[in-house]
Each structure stands twice: as C-alpha cells, then as structure tokens.
C-alpha cells in the first residue's frame, strides 16, 4: 500500500490539504489529530482533567473512536456520537495537546492508525506520522506556516461557523500548543529526517495541494 505522511503544527492546514489530496488520488484520508481531539472531548465530558494521566487512563477503555463518511465528508464518532463539530472548538485543541502526551492514549490509537495504513492507500496527517506511526511511508511532508498565519486561518474558520473567538487568545493557544507538542517526552512534533519541508504561509489551499501532489508524483 502507498502511504503519505503529512506532519506539522496545529492550524497549518494539514487536514484540509490532506483531504483534497486523498480525494484527488482516490486514497483513504486519516485525520489522526481528530482522533486525539475526540479523546480530549471524551475526557472533558467525563468531567476529568485532560492533563492528568491517571484520570485520562481511567476512561480510556470507554472511548471507542471510529471514522466514517457522511455525504463524502469524513466524520469522527465517539462511542457512536458524531463529534465532528465539537472536536474543532479551541478547548478540544488544547485537550488534544494534553492527552496526546500520554503514552497510553497514543497506544490506544496507534494500532487503529497502523491497521488503516496496512490495508489502504492512504494520506495520514498528524504530528508524528512520519517519525513514529508510519516511519516507512513512501512520501513524508512537513507542512508548516507562521503562527500568525495559522491563527488567522483558524480564526476565519471558526467565525464562518458562527463560533465566538478572540484572535489574540487563539494566537496564544496556538503558540502554547506548538510548545507543548514540540517539547513533550512522547513522540514530539518534529520533522522526519527524510521529510520534505513545505512552508505554506504565502500559499493558498489550491497552491499547497498542487505542490504536494507534485511531490507525491515525483516520489511514486
């Protein structure tokens, strides 16, 4: 199977870009970040702290994460409840950063992610795909953009959905998540040695997608 790993910081556009590329190539798209967000939502719904390893692990076995498609769009289900909207809220982003630093959470989702890759041509995005989850992926890309650009994109996305959001608060949250993700002990965010760095700060979705499709075409 052909596997493409796209890593990068929060708000770089990984999910949007990976979804478009998967559709163009006829591959399965796997949004691993959405899985961690769903775990974060699960922990919060149980009234627990997402940065407390013992509390998170106490409800981990009760979190069944599945990926489905509704009208061609990927949806994330938590115990059969569609949480695709809830996981995109700022609180879910910080929760995902916290729970993703817990080894048991990563193991809980690791097997699911690898099974999908073994059985499908796929585009998988996250923070440790090229370094940990799919170290043998045929194509690895590290997609990034400045914190300000990433904040503006997420701000516009949330405003379009009618979600109240403050730009400065969102910027601080993204910067904090960048720090958390790159400094955690378990599978920190970093560029794989054989990954191609692509800064999309001054590129739109179509330009970024075209650039990545060219890279895939050259590699495969």
Write the layout of secondary structure elements.
Elements: E1 3-7, H1 14-25, E2 28-31, H2 32-45, H3 53-60, E3 65-70, E4 73-78, E5 81-82, H4 90-99, H5 103-119, E6 122-126, H6 129-133, E7 139-144, H7 147-160, H8 167-183, E8 196-199, H9 205-219
Helix pairs in contact: 1-9, 2-4, 2-5, 4-8, 7-8
Count the strands? 8
Architecture (CATH level 2) name:
3-Layer(aba) Sandwich
Order of helices and strands: EHEHHEEEHHEHEHHEH
Bulk shape = globular
Helix content: 40-55%
Question: Cα-atom Rg, whole angstroms?
Answer: 16 Å
Average pLDDT over all residues: 92
| Uncertain residue ranges | none
Q: State the major sheet.
A: 5 strands, parallel
Features:
alpha/beta; three-stranded antiparallel β-sheet; Rossmann fold
What's a quick, concise take on this entry?
With 220 residues, the chain is an alpha/beta fold.
């Amino acid at each position: 199977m052909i596997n493409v790993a796209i890593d990068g910081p929060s708000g770089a556009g990984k999910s949007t870009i990976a979804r478009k590329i998967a559709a163009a190539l006829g591959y399965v798209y796997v949004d691993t970040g959405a899985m961690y967000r769903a775990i974060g939502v699960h922990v919060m719904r149980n009234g627990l702290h997402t940065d407390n390893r013992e509390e998170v692990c106490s409800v981990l076995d009760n979190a069944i994460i599945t990926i489905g498609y509704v009208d061609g769009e990927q949806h994330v289900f938590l115990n059969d409840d569609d949480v695709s909207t809830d996981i995109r809220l700022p609180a879910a982003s910080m929760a995902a950063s916290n729970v993703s630093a817990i080894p048991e959470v990563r193991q809980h989702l690791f097997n699911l992610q690898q099974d999908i890759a073994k059985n499908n041509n796929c585009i998988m995005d996250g923070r440790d795909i090229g370094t940990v989850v799919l170290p043998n992926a045929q194509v690895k890309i590290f997609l990034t953009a400045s914190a300000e650009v990433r904040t503006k994109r997420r701000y516009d996305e949330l405003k379009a959905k009618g979600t109240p959001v403050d730009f400065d608060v969102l910027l601080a949250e993204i910067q904090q998540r960048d720090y958390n993700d790159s400094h955690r002990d378990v599978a920190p965010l970093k560029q794989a040695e054989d990954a191609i760095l692509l800064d999309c700060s001054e590129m739109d979705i179509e330009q970024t997608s075209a650039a990545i499709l060219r890279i895939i075409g050259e590699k495969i």
